[in-house]
Specification:
8-stranded parallel beta sheet, alpha/beta, two-stranded antiparallel ribbon, TIM Barrel, 273 residues, 9 helices
């Protein structure tokens, strides 16, 4: 029997702005609003970047604390997954700040990736080890963010050396500039490349968000949607909220007879409890 589907909402990211979609949240109140819209539609996890009120990305511990408290005030049971990716150009110490808040789970990027133009998202082996060891010391489960097959291999190798907590959980980021493309062939390749006891989510970027989500639902994986990855409900139609994107993914799942996991069920699936 296929396990229930975990829906993750990446509600703001570090790069997308209100110029792209006016509903992108910056303030704590806006982030809480978008988190609630996603949770009401079925999201069990909020993947969280935070911004200053003017939209500038930050990894400030205090800003994360304010936003997480605001989310919990309206979604008390949701799993909040802070990003340690931050934004391109941030130092390791800067990126690691939200771990001081002791989240259940946090993102762990498992390789360096070209992000277009002159932007390089740097994650050296030493950095991955540092991030993984820090998460182990704080009993935080990592979600291994992988943009290509080699990053899966890196995560598996470092887990065998004791630097990444097991059982592994992956997020396949597909369709990003510089990473693996978002095609059914490539998703199947990624899904078949992880350990048998690992779990996985897919994040399709832009127009491949819902094709990848649909295939993940069929393959028994999990799904991430939200403004960080895609701002459109369908071609040419901006989503009015993250909740609209989560509801579309949930609707596809229901049509395919896949039940949605609530936060309690998601914690069990991901070995958080």
């Amino acid at each position: 029997m296929t396990e229930k589907l975990i829906l993750t909402a990446c509600i703001c990211g570090a790069e997308v702005t209100k110029a792209h979609n006016p509903a992108v949240p910056y303030t704590c109140a806006e982030i809480a609003r978008e988190a609630k819209s996603a949770c009401d539609a079925g999201a069990a996890i909020i993947h969280l970047h935070v911004r200053e009120d003017d939209g500038t990305p930050t990894q400030s511990t205090e800003r994360f604390r304010e936003c997480m408290d605001a989310i919990r005030s309206v979604c008390p049971d949701v799993i909040i997954q802070p990003s340690t990716g931050g934004a391109v150009g941030m130092s390791s110490d800067e990126r690691l700040q939200p771990l001081e808040l002791g989240p259940e789970i946090a993102s762990l990027d498992c390789g360096t990736c070209n992000f277009g133009g002159d932007e390089i998202f740097v994650n050296t082996e030493s950095m991955i080890i540092e991030f993984g060891d820090r998460m182990i010391s704080k009993n935080i489960k990592p979600e291994c963010e992988v943009f290509d097959k080699g990053m899966i291999d890196m995560a598996v190798r470092l887990s065998k050396k004791g630097h990444i907590k097991t059982p592994l959980h992956f997020n396949f980021v597909m369709g990003v500039n510089g990473g693996i493309s978002g095609t059914p062939r490539d998703l199947l390749f990624m899904a078949e490349s992880i350990p048998a006891d690992a779990t996985w989510t897919v994040s399709g970027i832009g127009s491949c968000e819902f094709p990848m989500a649909t295939m993940a639902i069929l393959l028994g994986g999990h799904v991430r949607v939200g403004f960080e990855d895609n701002i459109y409900l369908k071609k040419g139609v901006l989503a009015k909220s993250n909740g609209e994107l989560v509801e579309k993914a949930a609707r596809i799942a229901r049509e395919l007879n896949r039940e949605i996991a609530d936060p309690c069920e998601a914690r069990k699936i991901l070995s958080l409890v």
